[in-house]
Amino acid sequence: MLFDPRPKESRSELFDREKELDLLELYVRDGSPLILCLGVRRVGKTSLLKVFLNENNYPYIYINARKLSEYQYNVAGLYKLFSESITHTKFSNRLAEYLRSLRGVKIEVLGTSIEMGFDWRKREPSITSILEKFDNYARDQNTYFLVVIDEAQELRFLRGHNRMDFRQIMAYSYDNLRNVKFILSGSEIGLLYEFLEFDNYASPLYGRVRDELVLNRFSKEESIRFLEVGFNEAGIRPPRVTIEEVVGALDGIPGWLAFYGYNVVQARRFDILDKVLEEAIQVAFGELEKIVRSGKLYGHILRAVAMGHRNWSAIKRVVEAWVGTYIYNKTLYYGLNRLVALGVLMKENERYDFTDPIYREASKKLAF
Question: Where would a tag sit more exposed on the chain, N or C end, judged by fewer CB atoms within 10 A?
Fold first, then answer.
C-alpha cells in the first residue's frame, strides 16, 4: 500500500523512484567502493535501500546505526548489530560457512536458520576479519557484498577512548577488499560529512572517491500524482482542490504525504488536514526538543527563523533581544551551522530556511 507508514520493501510500493534505483544499481555494479545515499528526513532513503536489496541478489547486511544508542555507542553494540544483521539476512546460512572458522564466532543452528554471536569482550573476530570473509564469499559468487548502514552519522559516536574509529575499517575495506562495498545513508547530511572527513588530510578516508545518490522531495506534480495513486488504491477519490491544499502544506515530503493519506484512508474523510498537520507538528516538535536540550540557543535560532528572520544579522538581533545579552558571532555561527548539519535548516544565498515546513511550524511552539 502506497500509504503504508512503514518503510517500503517492494518496487510496487515505492512511488516514482525508478531513476534512483537504476542509479544505485549502476553505482554498485560499476562505481566506487563507497556509496552515499543522502536526503532530508522522511524523503524515503530507507525505503529505497530496502527495495533495492530485496529486488537484487547482492549478498548484504543491513544495519540501522541509530540502534547503537541502545548500547551507549560502545563496541559491544556494534558487534551485536553485526551479528544480528548476519543472522537476519537471507544469506545467513551461506555466510556461516565462511565465518565459522574465525576465532570468537558462535553459531547456533535453529532448524533451517542460524543465530550468530561474537565474543565482543575480546573483540573477536575483528570487524575487518568479518569483512574479509564477506569479500571471500562475494568473490566466490562473482558478485559484490554490500554493507548497508542506515543513519551512518551515528557511527561517529564510536570514536574516543577505548572505542573504535569505524572510518579506519571502511578505509581498510576500500583499499583491500575488492568485492565489498559500503552504502551509507544519512538524513543529517552535514554530520555525516563531518564524520567521514573526506577533505581532512588526517582522516582515514581523506581523498577517497565516492558516489553520491541524493533523493529529492517530490515536485508539486509528483506529490499530486502520489496522493491520487494512493487514494485510488484505497478506492477513494478526493476533490482536486483538497489534494492541492495538502501538497501546498506538506511541500513534497513523501513521509508526510503518506502520513496524511494513511489517516484519510483510516478516517474515510478528507477534512482532516488540520488534525494531521497538528499530529505531524507534534512529532517534529519532539525531535526538535531533543536538539534544544543540548543548548537553548538552538531553540532561539529555530524560533527566529520560523518567525521569518532569515539572514544572519536579523537572526542575531532577535535572538540577542530574547536572551537579553550579547552573543558572540562565532557562537551564533556554530549554532546555525550545527542546525544545518543536523538537516533541520538549510542555507542558500546567505539566507536560512527549514528543510521541512513541519519543522517551521513546530519551531514556533518552542518556548523558554
Answer: C
Q: Assess whether 317 and 279 both reside in one domain.
A: no
CB 43, CB 72: distance < 8 Å: no
201 shares a domain with 128 = yes
**Scanning the structure block, which residue is given the C-alpha cell 558571532?**
329
The pLDDT tens digits for 326-350 are 999 999 999 999 999 999 999 999 9
Q: Is residue 73 in some structural domain?
A: yes
Q: Which helix (H) or strand (E) element contains residue 108?
A: strand 105-110
Residue percentage of the chain with pLDDT more than 70: 99
Residue 275: count of CB within 10 angstroms of its CB:
12
Q: Kindly list the distances between the CA atom of residue 277 and the CA atoms of 1, 128, 200, 285, 346, in Å, as whole numbers in the listed order.
A: 21, 46, 42, 12, 22
State the amino acid at position 239 in one-letter form: P
Query: Grid coordinates standing for 227?
Result: 496522493
N residues, the chain: 368
Question: How far lies 70's CA from each of 73, 80, 255, in Å?
Answer: 7, 11, 25
CATH code assigned at 279: 1.10.8.60
Q: What is the pLDDT of residues 59-87, one digit of tens each?
A: 999 999 999 999 889 888 999 999 999 99
pLDDT in tens, 191-219: 999 999 999 999 999 999 999 999 999 99
CATH code, domain carrying 178: 3.40.50.300
- Residue 314 near residue 320, CB atoms below 8 Å: no
Report the pLDDT value the prediction gives residue 159, as an integer from 0 to 100.
62
Whole-angstrom Cα distance, residue 302 to residue 296?
A: 10
Range of the domain at 102: 17-214
pLDDT score recorded for residue 160? 52
pLDDT at 368 over 60: yes
User: Helices (H) and strands (E) in the chain — how many of each?
Assistant: 15, 9
Strand-pairing partners, residue 289, are: none
Half-sphere exposure of 276 (CA within 13 A, CB side): 23
152 and 298 housed in the same domain: no
Quote the CA–CA distance of 192 and 177 in Å, as a whole number: 23
- Distance, CA of 260 to CA of 270 (rounded, Å): 9
**210 and 224: one domain?**
no
Cα–Cα distance measured from residue 38 to residue 111, given in angstroms and rounded to the nearest whole number? 39
